[in-house]
Amino acid sequence: MNREPDFFQNVQAELSNGRVWLDRAIVLAYAIIAGLCVVGFTLLSERTFEWFEQVNGLNRWLVLLWIPAWTAGIVWLTRRHFAGAAGSGIPQVMAALDPALPPARTSRFVSLKLTFGKIGLSSAGLLAGLSVGREGPSVQVAAGIMQHAQRWLGPGSGISRHALLVAGGAAGLAAAFNAPLAGVVFAIEELSRKLESRSSGLIIAAIVLGGLMAVSTFGNLTYFGVIRVPRLSWEALMPGLMVAVTCGLLGGLFSRVMAASLTGVPDRFNQWRARYPVRFAAAGGLAIAVIGIVTGGATFGAGSAAVRHMLEGQADVPEFYVTLKFMATWLTAWCGVPGGIFAPSLSIGAGVGHNVAALTGSDLSAPLIAMGMASFLAAVTQAPLTSFIIVMEMVDGHVMVLSLMASAMLASLISRMISRPLYTTLAEHMVALAAPPPPPVQEPPPAEAAEADAIPPARAHH
Asked: What is the model's pLDDT at position 413?
């Protein structure tokens, strides 16, 4: 017979096992440390981009030397000492979670060394004025810290390395965007696909605790403030569809181009990149500098300032901002610079929404910009739930829940017709390079093979 749980007996059993509570305290302490590291990373990245803006303000032509030199130096240092830090950071955490990767090789993608290397190199990318964000790198930063907790846990803790990586990665995203709910959804949708029942409560607590470190530092403020949404009617349907479809097509194209470039599809440029990576980075940095000069500096950095100006109705971005930001972000990633694409993707999507509002003469500029952010991010990552929740928390857009959800879902569906999921593709490529090759098939010596072939089948059976 099934018996009702005995409350007092269960409380006594919980409190009597001190080792379990010590393990939980260790995990939560590491979650606090991970959240604080992401906060420090945020402050450092903001300061380094301010330094770049000061350099750019001295003479706009100086970036033609500044950006190529820094890009080449960052790529050289990354390849020589922090090879696992190149790129976003999310594919690295997904690769570390892949069961096909031997546990001994996890340190190629997440470790304390890569955590501090990622912080320094991604901040240097913003000092260079490159089109990178800090949100994707924050996932790898926090995961590298959380996985270190395993060495202090008891052998029977029941908290696996997989659970620690999921908790760390999601806590990093929650702290980076100041959005704890988005962190929990990201853990389920993108990292784990499902949470382990034995430790799901502890994982969620660690994610929320990591996110609270950002809230305690920066206050309970949304990333882009609060947008004002007028009463939506059927007149908003056509502009909204235009935003979602355009973002779905552009996001799918972006994802496909990025995957082809970063997985080494054989062509002349990738061959040059493989043979002369530092020279390639310098050339890419020069192209990014030229794009920035053409746009009056609008494409430099993550693009957060441009998004704020668009939402406030004070946009000063050029007409071809979407195309040029697209190119600057792709070139930055192709060079091999450590840095994320979350924030640049949000700025591209915001540009699409801004352009559609201007084209249709709609007075729904802010809602269309928010829908563009959610749509393009969903198309690039093919994680629509995470995307619309991130944007909802960033602009306090709870009144737009259905609009953001529908646009993100539609854009993600269109993107899936064009490209495979970007992060999954990159993670599989990393695992294939890091996994040990299969053992060679042992063939019999020629003499034995010839003798076996000479035996008739009937005799060989006996």
From this structure: 96
